[in-house]
Amino acid sequence: MKPSDKAPSEKALVPFVSVDHMMQLIHHIGVEEMMSGIAGYIEDDFHRWELFDKTPRVASHSEVGVIELMPTSDGEMYGFKYVNGHPKNTKEGLQTVTAFGLLANVETGYPMLLSEMTMLTALRTAATSAMVAKHLAPKGADTMAMIGNGAQSEFQTLAMKAICGLKSVRLYDIDLAATEKCAANLAAQDIKVVICKTPEEAIEGAQILTTCTADKQNATILSDNMVGSGVHINAIGGDCPGKTELAAGILQRSDIFVEYPPQTRIEGEIQQLPEDYPVTELWQVITGTAAGRTSERQITLFDSVGFAIEDFSALRYVRDQLEATGLYHALDLLADPDDPRDLFGMLQRAAPGNA
């Protein structure tokens, strides 16, 4: 057998979770159960917030979208996600967001997991929203307005159902076809679905208001006079400079909660406000060092942009499921010469004709 025909050593192999394996894993565990599990890992990591390296994501912006890297480490594992956001893609039959991610061992630098994260990011984003709403939404909240019915809408709804006890969702999108798609997908999910003709109609009777639109621009999805007291706003559409969804007046009447202020002030709704405008970090609410909801009439606002620690948590969750499920490929990713100093010799021995 030629050296190039030899099976890779164990040191060369990295578990790789493909899109197909990720979908199998989700069905094996259950969509709602998996989002609940990811939410638990995220909450656990928010309790360890101070251990993590933290930096705003590294972004490369263009006129049509953004490509970003999102790195972090807890000192034992390092993780990053590659992710794009291109709103024009759907018109070309492509996803607005695609992603993949990696976990590595800090001690050796060797990768421990490579995974698709387009599907996983959808679950992670919804799991984060619901975990936050569990802490901030009004007591007994059971109705959500879902404004923007694209790829994230079903995940948001089911995460809120699983984690917060949501019973009803009121859907609105400027594109009726998107709303009908969302309603059809949720028809068998044991939740009441109401299709609405306007955003004003959608927020009637809703205690949780979720905005998730894709246009890369400053927009007013919710105007100031649309939002009354005693609600929780889950603003997840603003995620890059120049893209917002809420009127500034809403922000000024709300108690604002964020993941990581240096990133949110660049990308979130609060980019509309002065740089020193007061906000509360979510990890402080979760650890009990800062107040969350303090009154029935309070407006709480989660200015969500997504942060690397949440992706780290989701990858950590997936990695912990692999041994029991076997839902991964062993990917020949790392060179492993017999002598670590002789990489060139490994190459030479793999030349055609060497026996």
From TrEMBL:
Gene3D superfamilies: NAD(P)-binding Rossmann-like Domain, ornithine cyclodeaminase, domain 1. Pfam families: OCD_Mu_crystall. Transmembrane segments: none annotated. This is Ornithine cyclodeaminase. NCBIfam families: PRK07589.1. It comes from Ruegeria spongiae. InterPro entries: NAD(P)-bd_dom_sf, ODC_Mu_crystall, ODC_N.
